[in-house]
Fold this protein.
Amino acid sequence: MSFETIDTSVQALWRFDYDSNIKQLRDLYEVAKKEQWNAALDVPWDIPTDAAVVGDMSAPNVEPYDFVKALTKDKQIEFAKRRSAHLLSNFLHGEQGAMMICGQLVEVVPDMDGKLYAATQVIDEARHVEVFARYIKRLDRVYPLMTGLKNLLNAVLQADMWQMKCIGMQVIAESIAMGSFKTMRAITHDEVFKKILELTSQDEARHVSYGLIYMKDAIPKMNEPDRDRLEDFAFAAMTMLATTPQMEGGKRVDPFEQIYLELGIDPARANSEIISRMADPEFVKAQPNPFRDYAYPQLERVGLITDRTRAKYREVGLAA
Amino acid sequence: MSRRFEVIEEECIGCSLCSERAPGNLEIRSGSTTAQVFKQPETPEEEEACHEASDYCPTGGLKARSVDSASTKPQADTGSPALAPAGDSKPAGIAPMKLEN
Ligand code: SF4
Ligand SMILES: [Fe+2]
Ligand SMILES: [Fe+2]
């Protein structure tokens, strides 16, 4: 049994008027009810997964590294499979975080339409936990939650404003998930995985749309100090996820070290090659960057990138 | 001032939220993975539905642009420069333009 706890406290809000007051959210709730699927029945689990066609989800558009090319064909496939399992493990943990945060949204959001819709998202995220946990077993094992993602999910779980929960989860995390699933769909040739990504993307799109609808409605109604806090929270959430190094026992560690060692790859060689590629700005620019490409534009759309915060995003390379 | 709508294929993930909101104007044809504007809005209701679909498109892939209403005529979609999602907090900065038929 493996678990840990954090203390959260939310202010649950009762609504006693049950009529719709944000029509777009009510419409989205109707769509969500219609689009439910069953993780056990709607994925073709009877089709076996051929490891050779899964692809390396962690390395889109990347000419294979020399340390990978030096491996035998079988080991290259194994490497891709394990790195994919590592990445998908973090999506899996993220799905669990999303399920818990959405449970909080049901309690804290001030509108009945917002509560009803968030309730549908709890079951969406439950399905995502189910499919990713099941699929990862075909590849490898579940790897631990990365430090940056854990910090973000805990910050959202502990946030004291409902708008922070909505921005952190629905606008930032969901946009990144939606963008990453799109990238993965283009890489993989595994039919089962493709279907999982198709179904989950459909759900994630609604989750992002909820964030856009709700925040476009709520942000203009906020007072200035709260708005400033929300802007700062958005920036902190983005940097937490994008730039926090992997830590274990208070020490900085390489998240892939275990995989390198198990496959006979020298971690120092692998890292020096990766670092030298990352030093090339053209290479970095050509890589899909879900923070820059998906989350930042959404923050702009809801009006959270302001003269006060724009430069900070540019400084850390997260501005589109 | 009315608007013309366009789906940027590379940005669309085919989630169908836009065709749910504006079924009279947007659709995902069977076999296609992206949405299409099959008819530009012709009534204020359709315009409003398309505007909303664009505003809440999760990827920002459904774009709107203002057109000079005097010269607006429905026409097949073509590629277009300088687009921004309708109703965004950032002004789209698009000059009124004439469409040729
Ligand atoms: S809502 Fe946006 S992403 Fe979804 S199908 Fe329509 S254009 Fe594509
Ligand atoms: Fe999810
Ligand atoms: Fe989600």
Remarks:
- The mean pLDDT of chain B is 74.
- The longest strand of chain B covers residues 2-7.
- Residues 19 and 58 of chain B are 13 Å apart (CA to CA).
